[in-house]
Predict the structure.
Amino acid sequence: MSVAVHIAVIGSGGIGGVLAAAAHAAGHEVSLCVRTPFDQLTVETPEGTREIPAPVVTDPGELGEVDWILLTTKVQDVPSTSGWLQRLDDGRAPIVVVQNGVEHRSSVASMGLRGPVLPALIYVAAERVSPGHVVRRSPMTMQVEAGEVGERFAALLAGDALTIRPTDDFRTAAWRKMLTNLAPNPITALTLRRLDVLAEPDVRELCAGVLAEAVDVARAEGADLTHADAEKVLADYIEKFPPTNGTSMLYDRLAGLPTEHEHITGVLVRAATTHDIPVPLNKTLLTLMRALHPTKLPAV
């Protein structure tokens, strides 16, 4: 186990919750930085339910010095975290940006951060079912950019609950993760169904087309991906993930929150335009996602 440090987790959604739990399990002091307070973080996992003894802080001025900062909000919510980042960033504490998409550095570029920024990806089925209550339905793995900070972070949270792998080709890793989001996320959000919808033949065919377009764009962006990668992603979703799992866009739509379509499908479509690559299926999904209005809906 690494030496205990103080970790600030910005964001208390599914990702923030499970990472706070992993940090506590690794023996560290954890503080939750949130906009709306709640009494206690409870994380429900296949191994059992735990209450995480982490203070819930709403005022950046109440938090002292920290050793690591985990930014776990979605890309569209990053600007709202500026107060936390300005208060906590002392030039020493690394800022681990845990996001979907490929905008890890650009999403915080305007913040004028002094500390080292570490891009990170996480694979986990996690859902915030109510404020302070997170359900994790799968194991957790992360990929981070290789280097001294990445190696330190991997050692920091090493444990049974989380596997972290540094990678020398983070661009490819990020675009591969994009493949896991590009089809299921908008389709579940639009249909208001969980992953069971992907088993329907017509929907599976649509997913295959969406991902085939995406691979062409990812390769143009410098990612080392092939169409076999897209086929594996689709097969894994149908064969390995429980049909009762949802996606982040579905959960956000059900909660009446803005979805991250501009930072997943939108990024792909804009890159496709730059490279003059036709992506009609992704354009259609983006158009439909843009037409949705954030309205809280009954859970599915």
